[in-house]
Specification:
The complex is a heterodimer. By secondary structure, chain A is α/β, with parallel strands linked by helices. Chain A is 36% helix and 21% strand. Chain A has a single domain, classed as Response regulator (Rossmann fold), CATH 3.40.50.2300. A five-stranded parallel sheet of chain A has the order 3-2-4-5-6, sandwiched between helices. Classes of the chains: A alpha/beta, B alpha/beta.
């Protein structure tokens, strides 16, 4: 039996949501981690490439708190390039790099926060824990 | 705000959240329409191309409505994607969108055409109606 429930939802008072920018070119990997982070209560913006991420980061009304980006991405800029661009152009967001190549991930640590890399394959809970730790170290957000 | 939930079986798994697969290559447009749909209780899966959309459709992820732009990069545009989806997943609701009217009957398989720029309240109303129709179709 199919059931449709049309129910009015009560809006909770607006609260500042932390915004995570997920940059990942593999659609199923991106979908799973983005949905998981939304279920954790974050606003999640999805980008399929570094170019898309930069378009998002250039929007003054979109304040990104954490960038969670794959290292290996097609196109002119990979995750390292994106991290360098962020450090040079918009130093606000924390950066977490993820990738499958241990050496590349080790090299990435110089671009991230301390322990800012997450090797693949990762558990969504691991990503959430890393984001929570990074955000907890920041000054509280104004409502 | 209206929330729609779908239950496939009264004794089966938990009710499925109505889910839209949104195919749009412009990241800011994709973000705008995705967040508007999510604000109305609709789950949104995002794809930036027809290839990504097909990967999602072939996965185990439940999709009830395909909402695709016509102009997409790559070898397949939104009309071709809608035509293919119509053959492979005949129960899927299909919405095509563009800043230009589709030529001839190229959008014939679609349940609706939504012009750009978006009238967001009208988009939400149309998508909610199609999701309810999907559930009604599944009921009989």
């Amino acid at each position: 039996m199919t059931q449709i429930l049309m129910t009015p939802e009560s809006r909770s008072p607006p609260q500042p949501m932390e915004t995570i920018l997920v940059v990942e070119n593999e659609v199923l990997v991106r979908t799973v981690i983005a949905q998981y982070l939304r279920d954790c209560g974050y606003r999640v913006i999805e980008a399929v490439s570094a170019d898309e991420a930069i378009v998002v980061l250039k929007q003054p009304e979109l304040v990104v708190d954490v960038i969670f980006t794959d290292i290996d991405m097609p196109g002119a800029m990979d995750g390292f390039g994106l991290a360098r661009w962020v450090r040079s152009n918009c130093p606000g967001p924390e950066i977490i790099l993820t990738g499958t190549v241990p050496r590349a991930v080790d090299a990435a640590t110089q671009l991230c926060e301390e322990n800012g890399t997450v090797p693949k394959p990762y558990e969504p809970q691991t990503v959430h824990d890393r984001i929570k730790r990074l955000l907890a170290a920041r000054p509280p957000k104004k409502p | 705000m209206v929330g729609v939930t779908m239950q496939v079986s009264s004794v089966g798994p938990a009710p499925a959240t109505p889910t839209v697969l949104l195919v749009e290559d412009e990241v800011l447009i994709r973000l705008m329409i995705a967040e508007e749909l999510r604000d109305h209780g609709i789950q949104v899966l995002e794809a930036s191309s027809a290839d990504e959309a097909l990967t999602v459709l072939e996965s185990a992820l439940a999709v009830h409505l395909l909402f695709t732009d016509i102009q997409l990069p790559g070898t397949m545009n939104g009309v071709a994607l809608a035509n293919l989806a119509h053959v492979r997943y005949p129960h899927l609701k299909l919405v095509i969108t563009s800043s230009q009217e589709p030529c001839g009957d190229s959008g014939a398989v679609a349940d609706t055409f939504i012009p750009k720029p978006y009238d967001l309240p009208a988009v939400i109303k149309r998508v909610e109606a199609l999701l309810t129709q999907f559930a009604d179709d599944a009921n009989f």
